[in-house]
Fold this protein.
Amino acid sequence: MKPPPHTLLRFYFGGLKLGPGKVQLLELIRDTGSISAAGRAMEMSYKRAWMLVEEMNAAFTGPLVASARGGAKGGGAAVTEAGIAVIAAYRAAEAASAQATAPHIAALESLLADIPDQK
């Protein structure tokens, strides 16, 4: 079954790119309390996940993720209020974009030849 046509929303703020991957990483950190677990869920290394978190933390006026090093009680991570606001703003923009582009996507889709599924 073919997935429905959709848009992919990515914002460019100078050197920062903010798109679905980074937002999903924030959501998984929020849900798991762990950068490592979030990275594993996205099939990326801890180093890559940590690098993306550091990039986002440096780009905003305050950190999006607060972390504590491991130890006897273990470490962890939490998405800050700023991070929650970034998630909410991105998801709201994504929904608005989907609504605004729906008629245009339908018009384009009606002009397409039969496209085989990609694997």
Summary: The chain has four helices and four strands.
